[in-house]
Amino acid sequence: MNKNSFVVTSYNIHKGMSPLNRRVKMQGIAQALEEVGSDVLCLQEVQGQHLRRNMHYNEYPDQSQHEWFGEYLQLQNSYGKNSEYEDGHHGNAVLSRFPLDPKHNVNITVNKLEQRGVLHCEVQPAGWKKPVVVLCAHLNLFERDRIKQYQAISDYVRNEIASDQPLILAGDFNDWKKLSCDTLASDLGMTEAFKHCHGKLLPTFPAKLPVLSLDRIYVRNLSIKSAWVHNGKPWSKLSDHLPISAELALL
After folding, report:
1. What share of the chain is helix, strand, coil (3-state, %, to 5)?
2. Endonuclease/exonuclease/phosphatase domain: from which residue to which, for each copy (predicted)?
3. pTM
4. What is the rounded radius of gyration, in angstroms, for the C-alpha atoms of the chain?
5. How many domains does the chain have?
6. CB-based contacts of 73, cutoff 8 Å, min separation 6
7. Quick check: 66 and 93 in contact, CB under 8 A?
8. Which CATH number characterizes residue 121's domain?
9. DSSP SS3 for 189
10. Contact (CB, 8 A) for 26 and 61
11. What 3-state class would DSSP assign to 194?
12. Residues with Cβ within 8 Å of residue 4, at least 6 apart in sequence
């Protein structure tokens, strides 16, 4: 890789717990991400606070997970709180090797049961004239809800982000019907990294035996050099999703 390209990784970390919530996996996730060495991380289901797990598990960190990962990986970090409850809250996080400028946490909640958001940050790769907009998203489980969220994201991008600015939209789209590429991406003139590189979406869920393609990396005003899923161990034992990565470059 040269200075004109960088790697972005999107990963639903399942609140730092094993797929069945029996074990804390923070250390394993951090070590695996450190080995990957991505420049920008878009993380979903990041626990900002969970008082009960703090008391129950010795290895569960006292600080927010985005801060803990930021310190471990030596990355700048930003957090967008989406869902709040008695024991704490969780949301999305962006971590970056480049200077990071947090902008806004966009509320795309459409029902009370699933509180969702899109975290808007900008990162500034060295030597690049323009910063790269990074949108880290987590969408609903039902297609009827996701249709409303596609529209909300489209409206936000059109209203808030310049058409010529480098843009990444990554996250857990819960899009097992594979409709977001046709609706959201085409609406915004974005390209999905796996469709571009492989001609199809690749499965990411469940991590142990992936059959559903739930995770996405969309880009605009950037070229996609490669895209890959992080398969096998240790990933199959860390979260219920597999992480996905793409190497992106200036056009």
Report:
1. 25, 35, 35
2. 10-241
3. 0.96
4. 17
5. 1
6. 30, 33, 34, 41, 95
7. yes
8. 3.60.10.10
9. coil
10. yes
11. helix
12. 127, 249, 250
The number of residues in the chain equals 251
| Closest by Cα among 216, 212, 153, 214 to 188 | 153
Best CA proximity match to 183, nearest among 141, 223, 211, 143: 143
Per residue in 69-95, pLDDT (tens digit) is 999 999 999 999 998 887 888 899 999
Quickly tell me which residue has 């996250």 as its tokens.
171
The stretches of the chain forming alpha helices (DSSP H) are: 26-36, 51-56, 65-73, 143-160, 180, 186-188, 193-198
Spatial neighbors of 189 by CB under 8 A, at least 6 apart, are 220
Question: And the tokens for 145?
Answer: 């809800």
Question: Is the distance from CB of 29 to CB of 70 less than 8 angstroms?
Answer: no
CA 155 to chain centre: 20
